[in-house]
Amino acid sequence: RPARPAGPLQIEEVKAEKAVIKWDTPKDTGGSEIEGYIIEKQDLETGRWVPAGEVGPHDRKFTVEPLTPKKKYNFRVKAKNKEGESEALTSDKPVLAKNPYDEPAKPGKPEITDYDNTMVDLKWSAPSSDGGAPITNYVVEMKDKLSNDWKEVLKVDGNKTEGKVTGLQENASVQFRVKAINKAGPSEPSSETPLHIVKHRNLKPYIDRTNLNNVVLKVGRSHKFEVDIRGEPPPKVTWSFGEDVKLSNNEFIKIDNRDYHSDIYLNKLTRKQSGKYIITAVNASGKDSVSVDVTVL
Asked: Which GO BP terms sit in this record (predicted)?
């Protein structure tokens, strides 16, 4: 039988799913020509040696595959001739089946830089590490408030750290996060944005006229107007009596303003409260105003 192949057993390249090994011919062929080499691999978790392949007598190199990523392996090579197999030349130490690069670190938390009722513009910072391989893409994922599932909504080139997500549903509450991708795979996701309501960023105020009908009331009665208002940012709302008298809360009037809504409660009306009540909504995009007549008999 031949002597074992001359060493050391060199591991020229290791990746997640394969390794390239190299050896030299035995110093003693045992008096008979070498017919080939037998290569085996050992997963350290199982401890078992299993066949990885065979090559001819003139080959000194072999690609061992497939390997299971992130497992440790030993390798060995035997020479064979017609008398049988040699002792094995074994690798000096186990190798970890992994690429010479890793997934990137996670990108910075995305920031919403602009939005309207169908889209958002996002920007984020690149990861602190690219994992040893260039970032090829960023993937933006979105989650609806009512769902636990993140879904991909945008993919941009790795040299860009911003993007526009379009086709959003108005009034939906959504969050965004970003992953960086290199040839090892995707990073962990970034931190997510705070909950964002899909809406206009700049929208001229509009006062809903539905509940603003003229009324005729008897002395001593009360009445409430409930008014919805649109606009972005949320408009500032004021009430006035006629053109000149700005109204505020007192024993006869109660005004309750909140975002996108205003109530005015007229309590124990007297005849001198007959007149024109005007609601005005103002924001940076414009102004809207509506009057309603209250007649007290």
From this structure: anatomical structure morphogenesis; cell differentiation
Query: What's the CA gap between 154 and 116, in Å, rounded?
Result: 17
Beta bridge partners of residue 170, listed in sequence order? none
Going by C-alpha positions, the residue among 74, 92, 90, 86 that lies closest to residue 27 is 86
Query: What tokens does 84 get?
Result: 């049988």
- Helix-strand-coil percent breakdown of the chain, rounded to 5? 0, 50, 50
Question: Terminal CA-to-CA distance of the chain, rounded, Å?
Answer: 123
- Cβ burial 184-196 (10 Å sphere, 16+ → b, else e): beebeebebbeeb
Series of mean pLDDT values for 10-residue runs along the chain (297 residues): 95 95 95 96 97 97 96 98 96 94 96 97 98 97 96 98 98 98 96 97 96 97 97 96 95 96 97 96 97 97
- Enter the pTM of the model: 0.67
User: Considering only CA atoms, which of 237, 210, 221, 230 is closest in space to residue 292?
Assistant: 210
Q: What is the DSSP string of 183-221?
A: TTEEPPPPPPPPPEE---SSEEEEE--TT---EEE-TT-
Fill in the DSSP letter of residue 224.
E
Tokens of 154: 């945008």
* Gap between the Cα atoms of 207 and 148, Å rounded: 36
